[in-house]
Amino acid sequence: IEMEYCRHGTLREWLENVHPDDSQVQSVMRQVLLALASMHDEKIVHCDLKSDNILIAEDNTPRICDFELSKNAGALESTTMAGGTLGFIAPEVQSRAALPSAASDIYAFGVVLLNTLSKPADDHVFPQTDTDVLTSPELRQLVNSMLAQNPKLRPTAVQLQAHQFFAIDRVVLPPHWKKPSPFQLVTAPERMLRDD
What SS3 string covers 117-132? Predict the structure, then answer.
């Protein structure tokens, strides 16, 4: 198996070692959201989205990895085994009240976003799920919407793209991205596609 080498390692390692600025963090989170929207559009549920399953390439662009537990949402049955990582698993999946879904991926993305925006102290459990650590009421409301106990109340990846945090004016893009992307679901001037 040949795989791309992501020099910065996982999202957690990138945050700890590179110390990205707010616009870089925003850009990476937006790109992860776009990838999630594309996966969900293809009926793919990741089932184990977490900070350690997001790799950051040398150009500071993210790659979602570890699709070992992913499922075809159209083929899920009541006997489908659910997996994931504690702390990132949606409550309805952990309690076995529901099967993995796009909504359970959104829950995990909310946990990733919370822990990206506010790194837990060394003496605290990772990942944290208490949104009170966020000082911005808008960001707290955004993350709370993704962590809603009722999966039907969670926004979709497409709906999240309209939020001002993700609909940023300027995305930090590597220089080799030049063309409009057919994958972006919300129109924005920064739509780009890799040249290679």
Answer: HCCCCCCCCCCCCCHH
Q: Can you give the pTM of this predicted structure?
A: 0.81
Three-state DSSP class for residue 26: helix
User: DSSP class of residue 70?
Assistant: -
Q: How far apart are CA 64 and CA 34, in angstroms?
A: 11
Separation of first and last alpha carbons in the chain: 20
Q: Are 168 and 162 in contact (CB under 8 A)?
A: no
Res 73: pLDDT: 82
Give the total residue count for the chain: 196
- Residue among 81, 56, 51, 86 nearest 69 (CA): 81
Catalytic residue numbers? 48
Contact 56, 19 (CB under 8 A): no
Return the minimum-mean-pLDDT range out of 52-66, 87-101, 104-118, 181-195. 181-195
The DSSP call for residue 101 is -
Ordered DSSP codes for 55-93: EE-TTS-EEE---TT-EEGGG--TTPPP---TTTS-HHH
**Cα angle at 18 between 64 and 60, to 5 degrees?**
40
Which of 24, 35, 3, 28 has its CA nearest to residue 181?
A: 35
Residue 49, amino acid: L
Q: Which two tokens stand for residue 59?
A: 């150009």
